[in-house]
Amino acid sequence: MRYLIGIDDTDNPDSRGTGFRARQLSGRLAEAGLAVARGITRHQLLVHPDIPYTSHNSSACLDVELTGGDFEALAGFCRDYLTAESAPGSDAGLCIAAFDAVTEPAVQFGRSAKQVVLNREAARELAARAGLHLEGVTGDHMGMIGALSAVGLRRSGHDGRFIWLKGVRELSGTASAAQLLETTGIDAVETVDGSPVPQEAAVCVDPWPRPVLLNDRAILLAQKKRDSDAGNEWELLSKEAIRRY
After folding, report:
1. Is the pTM of this model over 0.90?
2. Measured between alpha carbons, how far is 86 from 8 in angstroms, rounded to an integer?
3. Dihedral sign computed on CA atoms, order 110, 111, 112, 118
4. What DSSP designation does 232 have?
5. Residue 8, burial from CB neighbour count under 10 angstroms (0-12, 13-18, 19+)
6. Can you list the domains of the chain with their CATH numbers?
7. Nearest-5° angle of CA 174, CA 177, CA 182?
8. Helices in the chain by DSSP H: which ranges?
9. pLDDT band (50, 70, 90) for residue 48
10. β-strands 174-176, 202-204: how paired?
11. 87 near 14, Cβ under 8 Å?
12. Quick one: which of 63, 128, 131, 142 is 20 to 30 A from 178 by CA?
């Protein structure tokens, strides 16, 4: 069964970030035989003086297939992980939901979190109405807002970028678009206007690619090299250029 696991505010200024913790949790779930990740996405939320955050106010969502145990085992494992690994002073939140159980109110909550200041009470109330598992794990539990938002935004299929996807972080050098589609979890290699990059195109994948989530697909955005004489050499969009996704 497919589940979404949202986490937020697991760090402090001196620790590794929530993205790292999401990838580590994914590995621990696999080692325990509980779940295998399909992908992990990062979701940017509103940056505002009234919102306490460590660095960028982003949260993370693990998209997993349950491979052993049940929901209670999954929730307990994630809770124990965050309790043990969240940094001192963090306010970690955890949200877990079956993929098909995440409905439009949760999606809209996530979209609102990108635009306005929300509070824990609103997150709790929405999760209770929608039947989603939401809890605070450390500190004052403010991370519940981002955790619920991450689940809603991932379910929308049209927000954020992948911080883990099969085979992507291992890429280096140059690969054809066809090779990228055959050997990784990337669904398409496209330009910003949605045009497919030719299958035979040589794509420079350094630094490691950051596919974005568009129309519920992992899309790697690329452009023709502007400083190359070769007719079919491509490069990734910069990290700065994909931040708007």
Report:
1. yes
2. 10
3. positive
4. T
5. buried
6. 2-161 (3.30.70.2200), 166-242 (no CATH)
7. 105
8. 18-31, 71-85, 104-113, 120-130, 143-156, 177-183, 239-242
9. low
10. antiparallel
11. yes
12. 63
Q: Which two tokens stand for residue 58?
A: 């982003």
CA count, 13 A, side-chain hemisphere, 35: 31
Contacts for 207 with CB less than 8 Å, ≥ 6 apart: 236, 239
Which one, of 78, 143, 155, lies nearest residue 110 by Cα?
Answer: 155
| Residue matched to tokens 């992908």 | 39
94 in Cβ contact with 61 (< 8 Å): no
What was the pLDDT predicted at 215? 94
Residue type, 72: E
Per-residue CA distances from 226 to 178, 229, 234, 237, 238 (Å): 22, 8, 9, 12, 13
DSSP β-bridge partners for residue 196: 190
Query: What pLDDT, in 10s, does the model give residues 75-105?
Result: 999 999 999 999 888 889 999 999 999 999 9
